[in-house]
Amino acid sequence: MPSIRCCVFVAVCAFGSLLQPGVAPAGDAPVRYCRFAAGDTVAYGIVEGEKVRELAGDLFGRWEKTNRLHELGDVKLLVPAQPTQVLALAGNYKSHLGDERVTTTITTVTKVVTDPRTGETTSESTSTSETRGGDQVPPRFQIPQPFFKSPSCLIPDGGTIVLPRDAEIVHYEAELVIVIGRKARNVPQEKALDYVLGVTCGNDISARVWQKNDVQWWRAKGSDTFGPCGPFIASGVDYDNLLMQLRLNGEVRQKERTSQMMQSVDEIVSFISRHVTLHPGDLIFTGTPGTTAELSPGDTVEVELEGVGVLRNRVAAE
User: Fold this and answer.
1) pLDDT digits (tens, 9 = 90+) for 20-31
2) Residues 251-268: pLDDT tens digits?
3) Which backbone phi and psi does 270 adopt, to 5 degrees?
4) Displacement of CA 213 from its chain's centroid (Å)
5) How far apart are CA 276 and CA 269, in angstroms?
6) In 198-313, which ranges are continuous DSSP H helix?
7) Cα separation of 63 and 18, whole Å?
8) What proportions of the chain, in percent to the nearest 5, are helix, strand and coil?
9) What domains can you pick out in the chain, each with its CATH number?
10) Cβ burial, residue 75 (10 Å; 0-12/13-18/19+)
């Protein structure tokens, strides 16, 4: 029995992540995790080149490496986490809020008064104007603006985005997705990265007519298949300075670095945790850059995030 205790102790020392999931310690090489199915086995793994090393245990709790290796091409990659909640940010890139032109909004109010005795009508108009340059952020977007997506909207790399028959116009939105590593409540910004396991690729599929006309975005952003996510979780990379690209049928449609986000990863996690308790495996989509466009049945859409991988999905009609 003493020798068994000794072996367990050595294993814990060798794999420090057993006790505290989160961002890789400073100076450590980046690592990529995945959640996969191989036959009847569903497990987390560490990506090692073209192979996946199976982990025993829970990536968000206690785990250790095993000697079981799988060919990456032989496993089915799953959504990389099983979140209790999925949040997303609106308007986190200046390039998505508008272009660089100066915009002046003029509001005119006309007051019409009718004298009931004489029937005479008079009117008086007043105008106000507001000018905003393309580099200015509207006040409401100077703090994070999160909303909820349904966990049931998530699909993995290789999953099919299904366009609802009554959704009309549906757009792609390439996004960096934060993966929470441990329970976070009232986290100060300077410690927020300690609660982040890593980041992955996401596509915040958006039905624009529903988004514009519905009171809430529950179906515009949270319909089934509207949350492609994966293929890997990258830990130990510079989350706030990664190149992100979206390709539609091989053509680059979005391309911007995450350094252009108006709120950084630590700001986002800290802000949300002051109002909503975050749990291990929860996902936060962090907003999309530039302009987006419509998806059509038969399209292939890819989101590539530097250091993470390529999230690839086909599009089909309902």
Assistant:
1) 444 444 446 899
2) 999 999 999 999 999 999
3) -60, -45
4) 23
5) 10
6) 208-213, 218-222, 265-273
7) 5
8) 20, 45, 40
9) 15-77 (2.30.30.370), 86-97+138-317 (3.90.850.10), 103-132 (no CATH)
10) buried
